[in-house]
Every structure is written in structure tokens, then in C-alpha cells.
């Protein structure tokens, strides 16, 4: 059945445009060059450009306008307010980010950087998720897709990392909880990189269940081990699924079948949010997914949302740095959100990620089972990281 898909986008997010190496911190540039040479030995450091660039969004938007999906509707997000950000980020951190309006430069050794319009873009990116959830709550639609930058899942309460200034998905989840009254929110982060910021923000909370599938440490940011399951009241509400590089569509579909779906059925969220990084695409040179895999994941998540949370589903862009991969994957995702049936899925002859996913599913089995009981999930790790 065809469904409406509300797409939240504002061209002012293209104004976030850092560039080049950091001449003020040559030691940071040297460290990043060493990291790139190690992770991507064929990459040219002479032609380096800031990976989180405006073309990431224009590739998606131009494709959706050239080949519109039946049912898509464009919306302009409201910029986030200071009060909305303060539910996630510290007052001191927000003052620091606001002080960067009109500035340029790197904020961290991992290349997180700003240009003069970056904070304006970040306000819109963080506001998009709130706008999407408000549209769902008002009955305007059920499936939403947020085309945003800078991304958010590496930003913690008081730290900018991994190209991220505000944690967009966390800001959206907290708005859903504290303003709109959604008692239980579930997040699946399928970006290739572990969402360390999202984990830190919700690590002690039992009202937000986070499943995070990602390339295993020491791949950036080096967090997200199986044993990182929460602390205090939040023990058991964070399920990490690390897998090796080279994992493909079958491995991610296993994450859905063996971890995400049973966890959602036990937890019974009232809203599902997806941190949708498309950097597991093979054109990003680390994993082996393609757009058929992302389409299949989205199709299954639509069915799951219909089953457990009255079809409320927000998909928010995180990473993905190859323009063609972003264009293909985002378009396939929107088609699936609109109800298009996916039948052809490309799979590797051997997908080594499947064994790692099966191991994670076994590790989390008791915790997932306990999500459906009144008592807290079992403490498997004493909150160790």
C-alpha cells in the first residue's frame, strides 16, 4: 500500500562548508593524515577535501527531484531552540557552539570543523527531527525522512566529534519524551560508525532503547563493544552489535531479524527513530552493502513500526560520503518508506559479518527477553565500557 513520506530539508544546511587541513593545529592534521593512510591506504592526501560536504545533500535532493517517489512531500524544518537543545547538551557546551557563529576552523583532531554558516545549519539539522515528530504527532504523516547535515550521533552532551555539533537524533528523542509524551522511544543506529554520542546521552536511561550496529573497534570512534549495555537504570537498554569490515546486506538484515525486531517486540516503543548512515555502502570502501540492502532494511522497519508503534517512523541521515551511494541509498529508502515492495536483494557469497551478528544476538538474548518483563534487564556487565 502506498504511503505518504514527509521529507524535511532546508538548503541553508549547505552553508556548512569547512575545507582543507587545519593550519592552526598542524599536529591534528598530521594525526588525521596518518589515520587516513591506515584506514584508506589508496586515498590521496594531496586531494583531501572535507568529507562531510554539501554535495552529500545535493546528491540526495537532486535525485529525489529528478525521480520523485509517489507520495513524497517536501517540508522545511523549524530551527531548534535553545531550550530544546538544553534537554541534551550542557549550557556551557551550547554557549561554546553559539560562539562559533561566523567562525572557521577545526574543533577536534578528528576533523570536526566549522565554517561561518555551520551553526545555522546545525540548528536546522537538530530541528528537523523535532519537526518530523511533530508532524507525526499531529497526524500529518507517519513516515518521515530528514535530509540533514551536519550529522549528530557522535556529539555527546558536551563534546563535538565526528563531524557532529548537536546530537540530532537525541534532541528528537528527548522532545518526543518530554514534550509529546511518548513514554518509550527506540533508536536503531545503522551507520557504519558507532554512535558514541547517542550512547553516552542515553546510557543510564530505561525509556530510550538504543540498538547500534557498526564496524567493530578500533574502527572510529573505537567504542561500541558488546559489553557496553548501559549503567544504573539504563543497564540492558543499549544493545551494541559490532561487526567486521566488509560486512554486507545479509549481515545487516541479520541485525534486524535477530536483535532489532525481537528487542522492539519486547520493549514496545511508541516511536522508532533510525540514525541512517549510508556509509556501509560498498562505494564508501569499508563495508559491502548496497542500496538494495538499505531498501530492504527500511521495508522491514516500516512493517515493524506498523506492528509495535502505530507506524510512527523517523529516518534521519547520519553518515555516508560517496555521492552516488548516498543518492542511490536515500532514494531506495524513500521508495521503501512510501510502500514500494523490495524483492531483489544483493547478497555476498560469504558475508563474514553474519557470524559476528549471531554472536551479538546470543550475547543480548537474555537482555532482550527481559525487556518485556516489568523487572529490569539482567546486568551482564555492571555498566563497564
UniProtKB/TrEMBL annotation:
CDD domains (UniProt xref): HDAC_classII
Pfam families named among the record's database cross-references: Hist_deacetyl
Recorded superkingdom: Bacteria
Start and end residues of each Histone deacetylase domain: 51-337
SUPFAM superfamilies in alphabetical order: Arginase/deacetylase
InterPro entries: HDACs (IPR000286), His_deacetylse_dom (IPR023801), His_deacetylse_dom_sf (IPR037138), Ureohydrolase_dom_sf (IPR023696)
Family per similarity comment: Belongs to the histone deacetylase family.
Listed name of the protein: Histone deacetylase
The species this protein was found in: Guyparkeria halophila
Amino acid at each position: 500500500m502506498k504511503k505518504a513520506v514527509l521529507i524535511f530539508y532546508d538548503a541553508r544546511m549547505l552553508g556548512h562548508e569547512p575545507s582543507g587541513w587545519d593550519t592552526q593545529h598542524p599536529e591534528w592534521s598530521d594525526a588525521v593524515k596518518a589515520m587516513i593512510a591506515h584506514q584508506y591506504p589508496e586515498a590521496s592526501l594531496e586531494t583531501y577535501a572535507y568529507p562531510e560536504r554539501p554535495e552529500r545533500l545535493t546528491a540526495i535532493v537532486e535525485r529525489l527531484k529528478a525521480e520523485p517517489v509517489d507520495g513524497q512531500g517536501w517540508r522545511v524544518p523549524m530551527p531548534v531552540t535553545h531550550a530544546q537543545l538544553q534537554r541534551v547538551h550542557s549550557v556551557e557546551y551550547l554557549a561554546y557552539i553559539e560562539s562559533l557563529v561566523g567562525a572557521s576552523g577545526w574543533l577536534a583532531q578528528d576533523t570536526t570543523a566549522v565554517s561561518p554558516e555551520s551553526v545555522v545549519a546545525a540548528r536546522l539539522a537538530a530541528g528537523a527531527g523535532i519537526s518530523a515528530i511533530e508532524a507525526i504527532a499531529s497526524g500529518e504523516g507517519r513516515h518521515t525522512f530528514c535530509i540533514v547535515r551536519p550529522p549528530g550521533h557522535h556529539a555527546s552532551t558536551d563534546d563535538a566529534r565526528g563531524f557532529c555539533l548537536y546530537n540530532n537524533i537525541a534532541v528528537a528523542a528527548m522532545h518526543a519524551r518530554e514534550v509529546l509524551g511518548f513514554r518509550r522511544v527506540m533508536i536503531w543506529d545503522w551507520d557504519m560508525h558507532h554512535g558514541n554520542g547517542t550512547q553516552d546521552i542515553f546510557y543510564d536511561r530505561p525509556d530510550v532503547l538504543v540498538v547500534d550496529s557498526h564496524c567493530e573497534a578500533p574502527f572510529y570512534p573505537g567504542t561500541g563493544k558488546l559489553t557496553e549495555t548501559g549503567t544504573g537504570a539504563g543497564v540492558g537498554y543499549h544493545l551494541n552489535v559490532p561487526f567486521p569490515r566488509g560486512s554486507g546486506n545479509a549481515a545487516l538484515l541479520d541485525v534486524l531479524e535477530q536483535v532489532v525486531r525481537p528487542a522492539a517486540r519486547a520493549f514496545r516503543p511508541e516511536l522508532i527513530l533510525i540514525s541512517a548512515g549510508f556509509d556501509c555502502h560498498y562505494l564508501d570502501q569499508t563495508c559491502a552493502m548496497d542500496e538494495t540492502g538499505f531498501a530492504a532494511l527500511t521495508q522491514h522497519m516500516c512493517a515493524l513500526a506498523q506492528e509495535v508503534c502505530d507506524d510512527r517512523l523517523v529516518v534521519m541521515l547520519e553518515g555516508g560520503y560517496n555521492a552516488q551511494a548516498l543518492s542511490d541509498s536515500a532514494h531506495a529508502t524513500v521508495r521503501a518508506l512510501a510502500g514500494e515492495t523490495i524483492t531483489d536483494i544483493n547478497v555476498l557469497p560469504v558475508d563474514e559479518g553474519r557470524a559476528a551478528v549471531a554472536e551479538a544476538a546470543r550475547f543480548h538474548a537474555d537482555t532482550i527477553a527481559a525487556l518485556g518483563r516489568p523487572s529490569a534487564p539482567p546486568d551482564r556487565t555492571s555498566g563497564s565500557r
